[in-house]
Q: What sequence folds into this?
DNA sequence: TAGATAGTTCAATATTATTTGAACTATGAA
DNA sequence: TTCATAGTTCAAATAATATTGAACTATCTA
């Protein structure tokens, strides 16, 4: 992963509403959750949620699929994993575990 | 770690200059590097660097110590590790490894 | 078809971040 | 004490983000 992608993903997660959205979707799992339900559960206005979902999607952290008139959003676990790998390799070496050797998250 | 601290740390890293600073300091190790050398190596204006160092420090990601008229900055590996643990637990479960069981980074 | 529901987009506003250069503080050396 | 160095702080300008409500598109149901 390049530094620009890492910055983009970190920025996507560096906002309370978006981090809450992402956490909720991770909890929900790969099937995802329709936008309306996310909005309702987190108390976010629909248009604001759309904006945040787009930010997360543009950063590559969310996948979506349309089902009828619902749009289901789910985490892209590979992308999140890549981010954790990047942080582990470049931002946490030098204190014991050598870069690239740390086991991170969900493989 | 609470969500607010996670957001603060993510925001601190979600900026190209700051992520570069943090990476450089991780590479350098626990002894740290004086502000001037960071500025020179990364080509950042002193006042801008001060601003970014403060952001990273406020987020808890950097330690500093004064030595003569130099101020050495070094990563707080524990803080970074806590962030990775948070992300691993809350933002990456549901895809194999159960939350809290993933091995992250530099223990 | 019309009406209702699910989401998005847009424009306006408000809020936060970032950069710049000048002024400032503190330490060390002559 | 005076000068130079290392860094920080401040205020102003700019740029990037986030929120709101209204208008819009697409899908479903009657």
A:
């Amino acid at each position: 992963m390049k530094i620009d992608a890492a910055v983009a993903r970190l920025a996507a997660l560096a906002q309370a509403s978006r981090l809450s959205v992402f956490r909720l979707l991770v909890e929900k799992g790969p099937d995802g959750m329709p936008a309306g339900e996310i909005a309702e559960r987190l108390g976010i206005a629909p248009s604001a949620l759309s904006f945040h979902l787009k930010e997360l999607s543009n950063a590559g952290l969310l996948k979506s699929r349309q089902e009828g008139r619902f749009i289901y959003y789910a985490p892209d676990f590979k992308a999140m994993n890549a981010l954790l790998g990047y942080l582990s390799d470049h931002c946490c070496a030098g204190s014991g575990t050598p870069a690239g050797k740390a086991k991170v998250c969900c493989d």
Residues 3-91 of chain B form a domain with the Arc Repressor Mutant, subunit A fold (CATH 1.10.10.10). Chain B has one domain: 3-91. The interface with chain A takes residues 3-4, 6-7, 10-11, 13-16, 19-20, 22-23, 26-30, 75, 77, 80-81, 83-84, 87-88, 90-97, 102-107 of chain B (CB under 8 Å). Residues 15, 17, 45, 47-48, 51-52, 55, 66, 68-70 of chain B lie near DNA strand C (CB under 10 Å from a C1').
